[in-house]
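Obj: model holo form, ligand = adenosine monophosphate.
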Amino acid sequence: MTSGHKDMVAVANAGSSSLKFSLYGLEDGNLTLALRGLVEGLGTSPAFTAKDPAGQVIGQHRWEEGATLGHEAALRHVMAFVRELVPDITLQGIGHRVVHGGLEHAAPVIVTPDILAQLDALSPLAPLHQPNNLAPIRLAFEVLPGVPQVACFDTAFHRSNAEVAQVYALPFELHEAGVRRYGFHGLSYEYIAGRLPEVAPELAQGKVIVLHLGNGASACAMQNGRSVASTMGFTALEGLPMGTRCGELDPGVLIWLMDQRGMDARALETLLYKQSGLLGVSGISSDMRVLLASDEPRARLAVDLFVHRTVREIGSLAAELGGLDALVFTAGIGENADEIRRRVIEGCAWLGVSIDEPANRARGPRVSHPGGACSAWVIPTDEELMIARHTVALLAQSQDDVGARP
Ligand code: AMP
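Output (holo structure tokens):
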């Protein structure tokens, strides 16, 4: 499969219980996907799968039930697999998804020990994600010394938001201490912003709301391909209901839970991140496919809530933009769930968009009738490719900088 590619770029995306990775061939600055893989169930029942670009399984491994595999062991397994598959690989760089770049980082950065310490200091802002994101960087420093590491941030794309879109109505001292709206899913939005001029050139400068509807879900208002506002805030909890996360919530509920149910921070964290959203409301599943196929009233309620909140957030973001030219659907639900797209678009009829059902079933890319004030599109996202591109661009730039030194 990859015999022609020796120069390669790897991408690591480490979540709380999984490690996703991709490998790209690099030839004359062009990236070609060689394989994608996943180690999931870290800490419970770990399993490894690797697939070629056509989706064929090319590697699989299962550890025994209850095996306590950490991120480090997962990464070591991935590296051994890749080395066996492509023995003569020259790894030019590794791009990492890092959830939080704080206020410092509005762009990807080559990680040095100082930068790593700085990113580590942001861990309290994203305690469930940041330490996992940084673990593969730390390990790669150790076992792949000399291979440049690039950190790409989920928050970076939203640093263009005006201060008024970032501030919470709390004492300003907390804003200065970093309690502000950062926004997430930035790598996905940046990828879509790059695809828009190719898919719909007339929209590249327009007012567009991108709906990243996956297990995590958010929406981003863009103008001229730049983020103006988004639904996620200080953490990846705010905004839309998600697979297991609550989305918008009256903060008074938290006070009530502490007073009346005696919940502490850790218990609230588990409730809001892992037991809420589609799973919490339905009591059945966090998986939209399961809920759409179910006749249970609470499964229907969970789906109704998802659509209802999405439509409301579109209204809010359209107000922020002062009008709307297009809606773009992406990620697992946005790309695949025809019914959710249809219902969201129907809920936005007042914006001048109407569903073209045959096009919607065919997954577009355009899924609205022409002639309306607003159009709707499906554009698959590719966060890993975005990270690989950033990695290549930053490494080329750093080589230029070295070359340009007197
Ligand atoms: P992601 O986090 O982007 O991988 O998206 C995961 C979500 O996409 C889950 O809720 C899946 O149920 C949902 N999804 C994937 N395929 C489909 C489909 N064909 N129909 C409805 N939902 C889907």
